[in-house]
Design brief:
six-stranded antiparallel sheet; TATA-Binding Protein; two-stranded antiparallel ribbon; single chain; 48% helix
Length: 256
């Protein structure tokens, strides 16, 4: 049974290597040491490969130890097995979401007359996607069938809708601005006269920046709010922009 402690140590070592590669890939991209293509597409996959190896070896150790009733190397084996699960869980879930989400990265509550970027229009460093609304452009769903972007949004994110409020536009704008700051976004423009707020949101890992524009305008006896969120890079946002809008609207509803 001398192999048991070695299996435990191999799982532990592979977990540590996987963790170091993942952290290095994420923060190296965020701090500008290399671009996202190298960090995410070249370096980060090795985090997954080695993490899977750590899990596989750790699982072999755990099964063997249980069958043999031998706990040698338990400290390393348990850390290697559980640590590899922790390392793999988020990216593997992200891969699953990517395969079940439409290949779009521009989400708006108003798909007919979406809010437009003004302050951010020509201030989007590193952007591969243009600031114009993608709604009329064709894109692929998770089933590879193509349709217009706005139709895919309606099909997969039907809850993303305009907010109507029976309050004066100025009051709704004030709440909208407070909610944007509460989200932790970098607010780059607040123009009450136009009912426009613009902001950016940068991810913790890899430092991907998405752009947000909020529009408040009179509607009937009250006001309406629309929000649009667009990724600067990538073909699919794996639902991040829709999730951001949902989170913002929830924050707005709880803001007075």
């Amino acid at each position: 049974m001398r192999i048991l402690p070695w299996l435990a140590r191999i799982s532990f070592a592979a977990f540590l290597i996987s963790l170091v590669i993942g952290v290095t890939a994420g923060f190296g991209t965020r701090f500008g040491w290399w671009d996202f293509r190298f960090g995410l597409l070249t370096l980060f996959p090795w985090c997954l490969y080695i993490g899977i190896a750590a899990f596989a070896v750790g699982l072999v150790w755990a099964v063997w130890a249980m069958v043999a009733n031998d706990g040698r190397g338990a400290r390393y084996g348990v850390i290697g097995l559980l640590g590899s699960i922790a390392v793999l869980a988020t990216p593997l879930y992200g891969i699953y979401v990517a395969k079940t989400s439409p290949m779009i990265h521009d989400i708006s509550t108003d798909t007919e007359h979406p809010p437009q970027f003004v302050a951010l229009k020509n201030n989007r460093p590193g952007a591969m996607n243009p600031p114009e609304y993608d709604g009329p452009k064709p894109a692929a769903g998770p089933d590879s069938k193509k349709d217009l972007t706005w139709k895919l949004q309606k099909a997969y994110y039907p809850d993303i809708r305009t907010v109507a409020d029976l309050t004066p536009p100025a009051k709704l704008f004030d709440r909208a601005a407070k909610a944007a700051h509460a989200m932790g976004w970098n607010v780059v423009a607040e123009v009450p006269a136009e009912g426009r707020i613009e902001a950016t949101d940068t991810s913790f890992w890899f430092g991907f920046t998405d752009d947000i524009v909020i529009r408040v305008k009179p509607a009937g006896q009250g006001a309406r709010l629309d929000i649009r969120s667009k990724s600067r890079v990538g073909v699919s946002d794996i639902g991040k922009n829709a999730a951001r809008i949902r989170s913002y609207l929830k924050t707005l509803a709880n803001t007075s």
